[in-house]
Write a structure and sequence with these properties.
The chain is about 30% helix and about 15% strand. It contains 16 helices and 20 strands. The strands form 5 sheets. Strands 9-8-7-3-2-1-13-12 form an 8-stranded parallel β-sheet. Strands 14-15-16-20-18 form a 5-stranded antiparallel β-sheet. It has a 3-stranded antiparallel β-sheet with strand order 4-6-5, with no helix packed on it. The structure holds 1-O-alpha-D-glucopyranosyl-D-fructose and calcium ion. The site of calcium ion has 5 residues, from loops.
């Protein structure tokens, strides 16, 4: 558990290193690039950075397939450079959170190679089974829409290994105590360097109770055998007590398919497992069954979902964007013409909800989904797999492409837009992923020169959130969830603030219900009006 309230008092900024800033012209963001932007980040006011994986990786899944947990991939720089980054961040009061990916390794990890070479010890690090009468070991589904079983050791083999993600991401066998010892050791390696915590990748699926067939499901057959199992809870407690607590480090678990009950079990302080979790339900309020089928976001559905989670958990991680999600403001139906307004509203919302705010690179300037032309511009393995699957289901080409374009994770992974020079100032070379076509107008330099800029409002809201104890610690109380307006209170020792968001591109009269709140703390509009909420306006109010 985190020392005092370290994890509660912070604002976290996620960096996707390959897309942040390239300094050597190879088209891939690097550690020197991040170091060069630390002043920018300190100025924004954030105090923790979470890095998506920087470790050695063949990049089948952009670093989430780790080949060496105690290394820095040469494309990003060296371990010395990383140490320098840590020290430079610390000087600016910024702590570092590393991504801990322990459901699987890369198939190019030493352990998997030694398993393939026949070393019994390492075979037992993975989940390897014989096929059943010429068929696969079970009927499970896979997160990346492929088959979760691949031949272990060549086509002629009668054995398979389990991978819930790509073929190059074999799942670890958490029944093996040696795996636990290895992971403790890896965590201590980074903690000794001074990192303040870990973001734990798909942490609630690591322990598979059994490999029995699953109940057929359109979402993910087999998940009842590995979602939040007792084995998983026990591992989390061990890591907490033996590794994290002595360092005062905190964790945020990425937990898939959790409901509020499962979530509570994972973060209940008495259980000593995780400090916070990322849940997904609010990211699914615009989807039909699976995330690739998106409908238009209905603000009221989003509001109700947020309220439910705010009321159900004492503390949680709050986020609207990360490297797996299309940009949030692009999900609003009437976003056209209101990019800046919607981004400011999201800043207000994120910084006034109860919980630790996690923001994602580019969110502070209102970056949007990318204008990808066709599949050749998309790199993400998940997008390619889903496109293939849709083809096998005879979904017509134009619909298939529309689906990918709208939902692809690459929407959030395009290079950071720094200025209006070529490649948005991200690289002098060829960027690894296309730069969003809107970079001439949407970029840090232009935004900071704009008196109406988005980043200045994010900065203001971050400062407010850090300095106001009601926003940090106050209880959440819902107040209004209408078709357009979300209003909620934060309450601490009898003091109250009211957060108000217009989630549509239309002006609406200030609702009756919140009329008693007549003292404006801040509005996202300079020319706001007493009785009207302008398109996507955010307001924070006091009484009297
Ligand atoms: O994501 C896990 C996850 O379940 C998803 O959100 C994932 O992006 C996918 O869309 C499921 O359909 C984590 C990481 O954040 C992601 O980048 C990795 O690809 C994945 O785990 C595997 O490590
Ligand atoms: Ca580079």
């Amino acid at each position: 558990m985190a020392a005092a309230n370290l994890h509660k008092d912070t604002v976290v900024y996620q960096i996707y290193p390959r897309s942040y800033m390239d300094t050597n012209g190879d088209g891939i963001g690097d550690i020197q690039g991040i170091i060069s932007k630390l002043d920018y980040l300190a100025d924004l006011g954030i105090n923790t950075i979470w890095f998506s994986p920087l470790y050695k990786s063949p990049d089948d899944d952009n670093g989430y397939d780790i080949a060496d947990y105690k290394s820095i991939d040469p494309k990003f720089g060296t371990m010395e450079e990383f140490d320098c980054l840590l020290a430079e961040a610390k000087k600016r009061g910024i702590g570092i959170v590393m991504d801990l990916v322990i459901n699987h390794t890369s198939d190019e990890h030493e352990w998997f190679k030694r398993a393939l070479a026949g070393e019994e010890k390492y075979r037992n690090y993975y989940i390897i089974r014989k096929g059943k009468n010429g068929r696969l070991p079970n009927n499970w589904g896979n997160f990346f829409a492929e088959c979760p079983w691949s031949k272990f050791g060549g086509e002629d083999s009668d054995e398979y290994y389990l991978h819930l993600f790509s073929k190059k991401q074999p799942d670890l066998n958490w029944h093996n105590p040696d795996v636990l010892e290895e992971v403790k050791d890896i965590m201590r390696f980074w903690l000794e360097k001074g990192v303040v915590g870990f973001r734990c990748d798909v942490i609630n699926i690591i322990y598979k109770d059994s490999l029995e067939n699953g109940k057929p499901s359109p979402i993910l057959t087999g998940m009842e055998h590995y979602l939040s199992t007792e084995g998983c809870h026990k591992i989390l407690r061990t890591l907490h007590d033996e590794v994290l607590e002595p360092y005062g480090a905190f964790t945020v678990g990425e937990t898939v398919f959790v409901d509020v009950f499962k979530a509570r079990d994972l973060i209940d302080e008495k259980r000593r497992e995780l400090d916070m979790i990322f849940y997904f339900e609010h990211m699914e309020t615009d989807q039909v069954i699976v995330k690739w089928f998106k409908t238009q976001l209905k603000p009221q559905k989003l509001m109700k979902c947020l309220t439910k989670w705010q009321h159900s958990l004492d503390w949680c991680a709050v986020y609207f964007e990360n490297h797996d999600q299309p940009r949030f403001i692009s999900r609003f139906i009437d976003i056209k013409g209101y990019r800046k307004e919607a981004s400011k509203m999201m800043a207000g919302l994120l910084m006034t909800l109860c919980g630790t705010p996690f923001m994602y690179e580019g969110q502070e300037i209102g970056m949007t989904n990318c204008d990808f032309k066709d599949l050749t511009e998309v790199m993400d393995i998940e997008s390619h797999n889903v496109y293939k699957m849709a083809k096998s289901l005879h979904i017509p080409e134009n619909i298939r492409w529309k689906m990918i374009k709208r939902t692809s994770r690459d929407n959030a992974r395009t290079p950071m837009q720094w200025d209006s020079s070529e490649n948005a100032g991200f690289t002098t070379g060829t960027p690894w992923l296309k730069v969003n076509g809107n970079y001439k107008t949407v970029n840090v330099a232009a935004d900071m020169a704009d008196p109406d800029g988005v980043r200045a409002f994010w900065k203001q809201m971050i400062a407010m959130r850090k300095n106001d104890e009601i926003l940090r610690e106050g209880q959440f109380r819902s107040c209004l969830e209408s078709k357009s307006v979300y209003a909620f209170k934060r309450v601490l020792n009898g003091k109250e603030l009211l957060s108000v968001c217009n989630m549509t591109g239309k002006s609406v009269p200030v609702p009756e219900k919140i009329k008693g709140w007549d003292n404006m703390v801040i509005s996202s509009y300079k020319d706001c009006e007493k009785d009207v909420l302008k398109p996507f306006e955010f307001r924070l109010m006091k009484r009297g």
